[in-house]
């Protein structure tokens, strides 16, 4: 290692600093659909982020795959570009007979927009409509109702980077670490489907 500087990357980003690799892992999206399905939800809506981000593309893909695997219905995917106002309008403009009882949002900002759209219609979250987000912004835990969201463990990412760096410094093999850095935090914005 003489003359070299060891480097450990704690998360992967593309050339525009958009998360890729572990940061874009969308596997938790399956759980975000599966649990409401067990609670009687059958028709879902996905509010998607900006597809320039790998995370938005993968979240949409896992959403659609899970809907198909479970034999559920997707009312559609609305491209919202991470904008709360687009999330608000997507829910506000749903036809009365859409049958949507669960809205799965690509991030917490879209979820807050979806909840606002529901409230403007006179719908109660989660009694009439369940809503989920992604990122687990601290404001989500404080709002009413508190927001169900996917949490990303950035500290775990940092610890992994330190372990990889130490392995390089000690000339040891990099540790194998495949456990997910995401977890769903279930809160008040989700409930059994109406009528259950």
TrEMBL record:
SUPFAM superfamilies attached to this UniProt entry: Periplasmic binding protein-like I (SSF53822)
Superkingdom of origin organism: Bacteria
Keyword Transcription regulation in record: yes
GO molecular-function terms, A-Z: DNA-binding transcription factor activity; transcription cis-regulatory region binding
Keyword Transcription regulation: yes
Keywords on record: DNA-binding, Transcription, Transcription regulation
Residue span(s) of domain Transcriptional regulator LacI/GalR-like sensor: 37-190
PANTHER family: LACI-RELATED TRANSCRIPTIONAL REPRESSOR, TRANSCRIPTIONAL REGULATORY PROTEIN
Protein name: Transcriptional regulator LacI/GalR-like sensor domain-containing protein
Species assigned in the record: Streptomyces poonensis
């Amino acid at each position: 290692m003489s003359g070299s500087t060891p480097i450990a990357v704690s998360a992967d980003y593309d050339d525009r600093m958009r998360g890729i690799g572990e940061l874009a892992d969308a596997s938790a999206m399956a759980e975000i659909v599966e649990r409401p399905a067990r609670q009687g939800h059958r028709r879902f809506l996905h509010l998607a982020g900006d597809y320039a981000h790998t995370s938005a593309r993968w979240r949409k893909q896992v959403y659609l795959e899970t809907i198909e695997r479970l034999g559920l219905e997707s009312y559609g995917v609305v491209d919202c570009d991470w904008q709360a106002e687009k999330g608000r309008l997507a829910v506000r403009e749903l036809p009365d007979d859409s049958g949507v009882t669960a809205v799965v949002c690509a991030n917490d900002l879209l979820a807050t927009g979806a909840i606002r759209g529901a409230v403007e219609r006179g719908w109660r979250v989660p009694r009439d409509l369940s809503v989920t987000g992604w990122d687990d912004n601290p404001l989500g835990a404080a709002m009413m109702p508190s927001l169900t969201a996917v949490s990303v463990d950035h500290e775990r990412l940092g610890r992994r980077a330190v372990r990889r760096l130490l392995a390089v410094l000690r000339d040891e093999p990099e540790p194998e670490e495949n456990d997910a850095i995401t977890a769903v935090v279930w809160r008040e914005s989700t409930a059994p489907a109406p009528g259950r």
